[in-house]
Amino acid sequence: MFNFLKSSNLSQDKAYEQLQQDKTIKLIDVRTSGEFKDGHVKGAVNIPLNTLPQKYSGMLPNKEQTIFVICLSGARASDATDFLKKAGYTNVHNIGGVGSWKFGLVR
Q1: Domain with 93 in it
Q2: pLDDT tens across 12-32, in order?
Q3: What long-range pairs does 85-92 form, CB within 8 A, spacing at least 24?
Q4: Is the pTM of this model over 0.85?
Q5: Quick one: which of 11, 14, 16, 23 has its CA closest to 104?
Q6: Looking at CB atoms within 10 Å, which of 9, 34, 59, 81 has the fewest?
Q7: Is residue 4 assigned to a domain?
Q8: What pLDDT, on the 0 to 100 scale, is given for residue 8?
Q9: Which helix (H) or strand (E) holds 59?
Q10: Residue 62 sits in a domain of what CATH number?
Q11: Residue 80 lies in a domain
Q12: Strand, coil or helix: what is 38?
């Protein structure tokens, strides 16, 4: 269903800085709900990758809004970023995985 295309990657340092400055950025965590409950970035919304095709349009109505996507390592975030770009979203960035997020997690 998903293809590995060249994703728009953004460093976590830059992502963190932008998240602090712009509260309108949507941060989407595409891990499973269980993974999400074990620890996630503050402000993230959980849309597991396998549910993204059914849920994205209702949860992300503005196709020009800045969207950051995160998972555990960055692979699922890459798939989700590519999917959203194909669906017409213009400002989507893969920010990698919570495994390397150094700014603290909500548990």
Answers
A1: 12-100
A2: 999 999 999 999 999 999 999
A3: 85/5, 85/8, 87/56, 87/57, 87/63, 88/63, 89/60, 89/63, 89/64, 89/65, 90/63, 90/64, 91/64, 91/65, 91/66, 91/67, 92/8, 92/67
A4: yes
A5: 16
A6: 34
A7: no
A8: 78
A9: helix 52-59
A10: 3.40.250.10
A11: yes
A12: helix
Question: Six-digit token pair at 50?
Answer: 């396998």
> Is residue 36 assigned to a domain?
yes
Token pair of 92 as six digits: 């989507």
Compute the average pLDDT of residues 68-86: 96
Residue 105 within a domain: no
- How many domains are there within the chain? 1
pLDDT band at 66 (very low <50, low <70, confident <90, very high): very high
- Residues 20 and 3: their CA atoms lie apart, in Å, by 31
pLDDT at 68 over 80: yes
